[in-house]
Write a structure and sequence with these properties.
five-stranded antiparallel beta sheet; three-stranded antiparallel beta sheet; 10 strands; elongated; disordered C terminus
Length: 829
């Protein structure tokens, strides 16, 4: 029934959901925040200059031979004629060239007259297939009419089309490569074809459900999904899904040593892995939701879709995987058999030797690992960021070739001029102020050329196309936007325009705003993710000290990973720099996924403390988890390494960084550094908790039946504060959601402001995070089995008022005991 349920859900959702590619939004991810100056400038251009909403294709023509100027002029005339005739592509609005606009020759012709530009504004959305086909038609016509001249189509229209081409087909290659790679590794680990197929089938079901749910939500405007997000989702689910499958099935094989009945062994395995896997999934989901604090669209819209995928994968792992293994029966271990599979769960000999090494010299081991990580971190000396989209393509494109031609013939700044806007409170049509401002701007730093001013339709707004003498995507150009704005403000005051509003638009200004937003977002995200991880570790380990040194190892791992990535991609491979969003992506994913292995090891260490002293407990935890966690880390690193096959710099760098960082976590930090620290701290490793007297078979492991009732009452009294807090946050979460929904409805009434929406949205976001965290804590404290109780509790935060419904159901069914210390805070409960 469980297996059929998931297959049915996947099939039904696939039948009603749109294709994920049809709802992907690749444009907004590359834009600055909507409230930034560059976006306000873009909106003013569209509002005040009619016809500027078209997307221009820029055709650059460079003649060849001894008479390059004549060859260029002839080619431009032929291209202009072809694009102006009745057979031109439907999306072409007009053509601006030396033929149609002779007065613009100074801007369209190079100094040696060997190259010319042809501007072709095109209507429609660049994301539409018809628009991309029209750009291809323009390219075909230009190439056909140019004769021997060198011609390339670039500009926003060409770049958008090439971006789609670079991405097209990449997802299929990525999926196929990931499946083949994971299958090979799983076959090597399990030595059983059927067992190797179980994780792949589970990932396939989870991916289908997550993609269809994501497509439905994206189509409704609830979340945004980009091509890069979809690519990362593929490798994330394969990595996380196989990790969870390995953890559960490894414990299942270990349990079979003492429990021959498969169903009872699986119940025991799921129960014993529930705490660590639940903590792992919660950490990743909360880390993804932490991205919602970002103001840059690239980060803000990145998390919800991936959080949805991980949540679905966790549900599938705890339900579909056990059901599928039990359905396959003992045949799942073919061809080695149950005995060999169970025996391998005791741990390979290499992990016993590693544990012995850590036990003999924990100080030397920790010092050596830290020294290596510090050396890798030295690569950060060459760290720099890149904001050039075209330079990030690891495949030749016509738009990039066109940009190189423009830079060579017209200067570096001509490929992306900036638009300086001066807006006054008074009419500027008749005064000399616009011309005076233009004259002053020509003397500003790093200004190569200023075009004639253009007056907006309201007569109060003036637009200047300003070309810098810098590469518009370089850090120096981004740094020049602030001084240019100040120079414009001073020029406006000198020209007699008082209280003028100055805005700057264009690629350079947008990238400057993106950089500012990313710097702000990265700081907030780093602090919030570390706080989330620390909180989860505190709840899981019941310790204040352990989360601190575990978080410190994660930060050190991140610095070493970023240093190694910078050295390899920038210093060795010669990339312009690290993609501007890659650093934030690396931190969130590496920390959220890297902590998983610490969770698996430390939770097993805590379990072993029940029967062994700390020194032996960490040795047992390392030997018992060594093989499965290392296998999981190897698979996760391999899946992210598949991203290096993609022709996009950001994905290549992200894939390399994640593979490198996960391998560091798997084979250095988790088996060497963390156990060495635990070994040095001894009894204080889980401070303030202290290990009790280890239980032995001769020691009673439970109180006599007569003591059950008093013990239960004591436990209930001890949990009463937690339960009251859980109840309160459930009510607050539901109420803030109700307020948010009501505000979203009422904001469409003109008299209503959006203040209420912002207030309730902020309160609800905070309440949601606290609710999920408390749910995890209650599940751990009350030792819920990971069945419908825990699943219902986590899903209760999704639909409105389900938090209250869960409270009522849990109280009535006894999943949550009635608090005895104080009455319930709401009459309904």
């Amino acid at each position: 029934m469980v297996a059929a349920f998931w297959v049915l859900i996947a099939g039904l959702l696939a039948g009603v959901a749109p294709a994920l590619e049809s709802v992907e939004d690749n444009a907004s991810a590359n834009l600055p925040p909507a409230a930034s100056d560059s976006m306000k400038a873009r909106d003013l251009v569209r509002a005040q200059l009619p016809g500027q909403d078209a997307t221009p294709a820029v055709i650059v023509v460079r003649g060849k031979g001894t008479d390059a100027a004549a060859s260029t002029t002839q080619a431009v005339a032929a291209i202009t004629s072809a694009l102006s005739g009745i057979s031109r592509p439907d999306h072409v609005v007009s053509v601006v060239s030396t033929v149609t606009a002779p007065d613009a020759a100074a801007e369209l012709v190079s100094q040696d007259r060997g190259a010319q530009l042809v501007i072709v504004p095109m209507k429609g959305s660049p994301s539409d297939e018809s628009f991309q086909n029209a750009v291809d038609e323009v390219r075909a016509l230009a190439s056909d009419r140019a004769g021997p001249a060198d011609v390339a189509v670039t500009g926003p229209a060409g770049i958008a089309t090439d971006t789609v081409k670079v991405f097209s087909g990449g997802d299929k290659v990525l999926l196929l490569a990931t499946i083949v790679l994971v299958l090979i590794i799983l076959l090597a680990i399990y030595r059983s074809p059927l067992m190797a197929l179980v994780p792949l089938l589970a990932v396939g079901v989870a991916m289908r459900v997550a993609e269809t749910l994501g497509a439905i939500l994206a189509d409704a405007g609830v979340i945004t999904v980009s091509s890069q997000t979809a690519s990362i989702m593929t490798v994330l689910l394969f990595g996380v899904g196989t990790d969870y499958a390995l953890i559960i099935t490894a414990r299942y094989r270990e349990t079979l040593l003492d429990e021959p009945d498969g169903a009872r062994a699986m119940q025991t395995a799921v129960r014993r892995t529930a705490e660590s896997v639940l903590a792992s999934a919660s950490t990743i989901v909360l880390a993804m939701f932490a991205l919602l604090v970002a103001i840059s669209p690239a980060l803000h819209g990145f998390g919800p879709y991936l959080a949805l995928g991980v949540a679905v994968m966790a549900l599938v792992a705890f339900t579909f995987i056990p059901a599928l293994v039990l359905l396959l029966g003992r045949g799942v271990f073919w061809s080695g058999g149950v005995g060999k599979a169970a025996e391998r769960s005791r741990g390979a000999g290499i992990w016993h030797r590693i544990a012995a090494l850590v036990a003999r010299a924990p100080v030397k081991v920790a010092s050596a690992v830290i020294a290596l990580l510090v050396v890798l971190s030295a690569g950060l000396l060459g760290y720099q960021e890149s904001f050039n989209t075209l330079s990030g393509f690891r495949a030749a494109t016509e738009s990039e070739h066109g940009q190189h031609l423009i830079q060579e013939e017209f200067g570096p700044g001509e490929i992306a001029p900036s638009t300086v806007i001066v807006r006054s409170q008074e009419n500027l049509r008749s005064g000399p102020a616009p011309a005076d401002i233009a004259t002053a701007l020509t003397d500003a730093d790093h200004v190569s050329r200023v075009a004639d001013p253009r007056m907006g339709k309201d007569g109060k707004t003036v637009f200047y196309d300003v070309v810098l003498d810098l590469d518009p995507y370089s850090s120096k150009a981004l740094d020049a936007i602030g001084p240019l704005k100040q120079a414009t403000q001073s020029a406006a005051q000198a020209a007699g325009v008082q209280d003028a509003t100055v805005l700057i638009g264009g690629e350079t200004a947008q990238n400057a705003d993106i950089r500012s937003a990313l710097d702000r977002d990265t700081t907030f995200i780093v602090l919030l993710v570390l706080a989330i991880i620390t909180a989860v570790l505190v709840l899981l380990l019941r310790s204040l000290l352990a989360p601190l040194y575990l978080a410190a190892t994660l930060v050190l791992s991140f610095l070493a990973t970023l240093g190694a990535t910078t050295f390899f991609t920038v210093t060795v491979l010669g990339d312009d720099g690290i993609g501007n969003r890659v650093t934030a992506y690396i931190f969130v994913f590496l920390v959220a996924l890297g902590v998983d292995y610490n969770i698996f090891v430390m939770s097993r260490f805590k379990q072993e403390l029940r029967t062994q002293p700390p020194a032996k407990a960490i040795t047992s935890a390392l030997t018992r988890t060594g093989g499965v966690v290392s296998s999981a880390g190897l698979i996760l690193a391999a899946t992210f390494a598949v991203l290096m096959t993609q022709p996009i710099r950001e994905l290549f760098q992200f894939g390399f960084a994640m593979a490198c960082g996960i391998l560091l976590d798997t084979f250095l930090i988790r088996p060497l550094l963390v156990p060495a620290i635990v070994r040095m701290l001894g009894d204080r490793a889980l401070w303030p908790a202290r290990p009790g007297t280890p239980q032995t078979p001769s020691t009673p492991t439970s109180a006599p039946p007569s003591a059950d009732v008093p013990a239960a009452r004591a436990t209930e009294t001890g949990h009463s504060r937690l339960l009251r807090a859980f109840t309160w946050i459930a009510v607050i979460e539901a109420c803030t959601w109700a307020g948010l929904l009501a505000g979203m409805y009422l904001k469409y009434i003109p008299e209503t402001t959006e203040l209420g929406v912002r207030i309730f949205g902020t309160l609800h976001g905070a309440a949601f995070i606290v609710y999920v965290s408390l749910t995890v804590l209650v599940a751990i404290r009350l030792k819920w089995r990971l069945g419908r109780t825990t699943i219902f509790a986590l899903l209760a935060a999704v639909p409105p008022f389900m938090t209250v419904a869960f409270e009522i159901w849990a109280r009535r069914t006894g999943r949550l005991p009635q608090p005895t210390a104080a009455p319930s805070p709401t009459p309904a409960l």
